[in-house]
Design brief:
The protein is mainly α and about 290 residues long. Helix content is about 75%, strand content about 0%. A two-stranded antiparallel sheet has the order 1-2. Helix 3 packs antiparallel against helix 6 and helix 7 runs parallel beside helix 12.
Length: about 290
C-alpha cells in the first residue's frame, strides 16, 4: 500500500478512536429527527381560515432548510478546524512525526496522507448527513431541492477549505492557535460577504470591493452562497433576481450560482494552500 494511503488510513482510525464521528453521528441523527418533526408541522399553517396550500408549505420548507443547512455547515467548519489544526503540530510535539519520518516516508506523503484521511471522512459525513436531512424534509413536506448533489459539493468544499487552511497552520502553530485563526477567518469571510452585498445594494464601491476581497482571501462565503442557491425553488429565484443586487445583502438568499471564475479560483485556492502546507512542513525542523 502506498505510504500516503497508509497515513490516510491511520489518520481516519485515530480520528475515529477520538469518538468524533460517533459524537457527530449522534448529533446529526438528533437534528434530523427533530427537524423532520418540525417540518411536518408546517402543514398546520392556516391561511384565510384554511390549511396552507402545498406550494406555500414547500416554499417555507425551502427557506427553513437553508437555516438547517447553515447549521450543518457551521458544525462542519468547526469540526474541520478543530480536527485539522492539531493534526501536525501534535505529532511534532509528541515526537510521533519524527519516529515515522525516520522510516522511508517522505514529509509530503505524511502531510498528504493526513489531509486525505481527514478529507475523506469530511466528505463522507457531509454526503450522509445532507442526504439524510433532505430525505427527512421530503418525507415531511414533499419538498426536495433542485440541486442536491451540488449542495453536497458546495458544503463539503467549505469544509475542505477550512481543513486545508487549518492543516497549513498546523505546520507552524499550535492546535488551538491554528483553530482560532481558521474559524476567525471563516466568520470574517461570512461577515465580509454580507458587507459586500450591502455595498452592491447601495452602489457603494468600497463596500462591494471589500466583500470581493474577503471572498478571494477565503472563499467559504462564496461557496456557502452556492449551497443556498441549490436549495431554492425556481419561484424564489425569480423573485430574488427581480430584486436586483439587494438580494446579495441577505446571507440566506442567492439569486444565481457562483460564477465559473470564482469556482476556478476556489479550486486554485485549495491547491495553493495545500502547496503552502507542503512547503512549510518540508522546511520545519523536527
Amino acid at each position: 500500500m502506498p505510504p500516503i494511503l497508509v497515513i490516510a488510513r491511520l489518520t481516519a482510525l485515530e480520528t475515529s478512536r477520538r469518538k468524533l464521528l460517533l459524537a457527530l453521528g449522534v448529533l446529526t441523527l438528533v437534528v434530523i429527527g427533530v427537524s423532520a418533526w418540525g417540518f411536518s408541522k408546517l402543514w398546520d399553517i392556516q391561511t384565510n381560515g384554511g390549511p396552507a396550500p402545498p406550494a406555500l408549505v414547500r416554499t417555507t420548507a425551502s427557506q427553513l432548510l437553508i437555516l438547517v443547512a447553515f447549521m450543518f455547515e457551521a458544525i462542519l467548519a468547526l469540526s474541520a478546524a478543530i480536527v485539522a489544526a492539531p493534526s501536525i503540530s501534535t505529532d511534532l510535539e509528541s515526537g510521533l512525526a519524527l519516529s515515522m519520518l525516520a522510516r522511508p516516508i517522505r514529509r509530503s506523503d505524511f502531510l498528504l496522507g493526513k489531509w486525505l484521511g481527514l478529507a475523506a471522512m469530511l466528505v463522507l459525513y457531509t454526503a450522509v448527513s445532507a442526504w439524510g436531512e433532505l430525505l427527512a424534509v421530503e418525507w415531511a413536506t414533499g419538498f426536495f431541492p433542485p440541486h442536491p448533489i451540488l449542495l453536497v459539493v458546495f458544503i463539503a468544499t467549505v469544509g475542505l477549505v477550512l481543513l486545508t487552511l487549518s492543516l497549513a497552520l498546523s505546520t507552524r502553530l499550535s492546535g488551538i492557535t491554528g483553530a482560532v485563526i481558521a474559524l476567525g477567518g471563516y466568520f470574517m469571510a461570512w461577515v465580509g460577504g454580507i458587507v459586500g452585498g450591502i455595498g452592491s445594494a447601495l452602489h457603494n464601491d468600497a463596500l462591494a470591493t471589500a466583500g470581493t476581497i474577503s471572498k478571494l482571501l477565503l472563499p467559504t462565503d462564496g461557496l456557502w452562497r452556492g449551497a443556498v442557491w441549490t436549495l431554492e425553488p425556481e419561484a424564489l429565484l425569480v423573485t430574488y433576481r427581480s430584486a436586483g443586487p439587494g438580494a446579495a445583502a441577505f446571507p440566506f438568499a442567492a439569486a444565481n450560482p457562483p460564477p465559473a471564475p470564482f469556482l476556478a479560483w476556489s479550486a486554485l485556492w485549495l491547491l495553493a494552500m495545500l502547496g503552502i502546507a507542503l512547503w512549510s512542513f518540508r522546511r520545519r525542523e523536527i
